[in-house]
């Protein structure tokens, strides 16, 4: 007897219920190419073109020509008073700090004299500066530590400076640069803004901007680069209304919102 083949019929899914590979319902009326496009993530804005080495060199050549010996604006008479001024300048303006420290440094320009003055008096001298209570405590504690651990001298390494109360990486970088002539890059709010806006060294943290700037700035400009960028941010590349029309590097700057082309 000949074998018979049994056919098992599998019902086809209804056309209207077709699913795409992603499991989403496909619209049968939509052309395939459009359906694929509509599922793609929106395109990210293009990252600005990176600065070339020649462009970075040109920018700093212009800064150097305009201001060959840039100076910091915090008043001080020696490394110790510079250190204290930088500690006091956190979240305060240089002008505000100078106003308070002129009288203070006239009577206490060494760790021993500061210690002798005492926390309460220091507090009185600096009470016009924000966070003055904590800062007075730190000034006394760092004076004490300079005497006990460093022979009354301001140390010249980042690791040692960062052990002092109230002194972080930015303070250490300013002191190393200004008191000891080291080519460090202290990133404050101005340098952070300029590094990001211009596209010279974009970064989400001050440390990322610091390392980015160190990587792109030619060594011959590093000693003064910190001051040029601070002054540029303070007087030209202002936070709210940058003065692009008088900016020395407006042709090189990558900020899409700059007001000159
Ligand atoms: S062009 Fe404008 S945004 Fe760019 S660095 Fe100059 S001031 Fe700042």
From TrEMBL:
InterPro entries (UniProt xref): DNA_glycosylase, Endonuclease3_FeS-loop_motif, Endouclease-III_FeS-bd_BS, HhH-GPD_domain, HhH_base_excis_C, HhH_motif, Nth
Keyword Hydrolase: yes
SMART domains referenced in this protein's UniProt entry, alphabetically: ENDO3c, FES
Record note on cofactor: Binds 1 [4Fe-4S] cluster.
Signal peptide as annotated in the record: none
Binding site for [4Fe-4S] cluster: 237, 244, 247, 253
Residue ranges with Basic residues bias: 40-49
Cofactor: [4Fe-4S] cluster
Any Pfam family the entry gives: HhH-GPD
Segments forming domain HhH-GPD: 88-235
Superkingdom of origin organism: Bacteria
Coiled coil ranges: none
Region (Disordered), start-end ranges: 1-52
EC number of this enzyme: 4.2.99.18
Keywords from the UniProt entry: 4Fe-4S, DNA damage, DNA repair, DNA-binding, Endonuclease, Glycosidase, Hydrolase, Iron, Iron-sulfur, Lyase, Metal-binding, Nuclease
Recorded GO MF terms: class I DNA-(apurinic or apyrimidinic site) endonuclease activity
UniProt enzyme class: lyase
Reactions mediated catalytically: 2'-deoxyribonucleotide-(2'-deoxyribose 5'-phosphate)-2'-deoxyribonucleotide-DNA = a 3'-end 2'-deoxyribonucleotide-(2,3-dehydro-2,3-deoxyribose 5'-phosphate)-DNA + a 5'-end 5'-phospho-2'-deoxyribonucleoside-DNA + H(+)
Family under the similarity heading: Belongs to the Nth/MutY family.
Function: DNA repair enzyme that has both DNA N-glycosylase activity and AP-lyase activity. The DNA N-glycosylase activity releases various damaged pyrimidines from DNA by cleaving the N-glycosidic bond, leaving an AP (apurinic/apyrimidinic) site. The AP-lyase activity cleaves the phosphodiester bond 3' to the AP site by a beta-elimination, leaving a 3'-terminal unsaturated sugar and a product with a terminal 5'-phosphate.
UniProt name for this protein: Endonuclease III
């Amino acid at each position: 007897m000949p074998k018979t083949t049994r056919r098992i019929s599998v019902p086809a899914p209804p056309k209207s219920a077709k699913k795409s590979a992603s499991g989403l319902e496909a619209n049968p009326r939509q052309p395939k190419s459009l359906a694929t496009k509509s599922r793609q993530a929106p395109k990210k804005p293009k990252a600005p073109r990176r600065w070339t080495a020649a462009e970075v060199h040109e920018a700093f050549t212009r800064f150097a020509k305009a201001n060959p010996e840039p100076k910091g604006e915090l008043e001080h008479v020696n490394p110790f008073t510079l250190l204290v001024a930088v500690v006091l300048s956190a979240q305060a303006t240089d002008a505000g700090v100078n106003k308070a420290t002129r009288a203070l440094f006239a009577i206490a320009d060494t760790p021993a004299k500061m210690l002798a003055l005492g926390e309460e008096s220091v507090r009185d001298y600096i009470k016009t500066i924000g966070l003055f209570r904590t800062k007075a405590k730190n000034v006394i504690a760092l004076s004490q530590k300079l005497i006990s651990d460093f022979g009354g001298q301001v140390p010249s390494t980042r690791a040692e400076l960062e052990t002092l109360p109230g002194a972080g990486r930015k303070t250490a970088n300013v002191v190393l640069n200004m008191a000891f002539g080291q080519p460090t890059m202290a990133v404050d709010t101005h340098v952070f803004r300029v590094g990001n806006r211009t596209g010279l060294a974009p970064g989400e943290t001050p440390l990322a901007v610091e390392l980015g700037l160190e990587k792109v700035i030619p060594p011959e400009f590093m000693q003064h680069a910190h001051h040029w960028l601070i002054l540029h941010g303070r007087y030209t590349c202002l936070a709210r209304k940058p003065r692009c029309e008088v900016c020395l590097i407006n042709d090189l700057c990558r900020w899409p919102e700059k007001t000159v082309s």
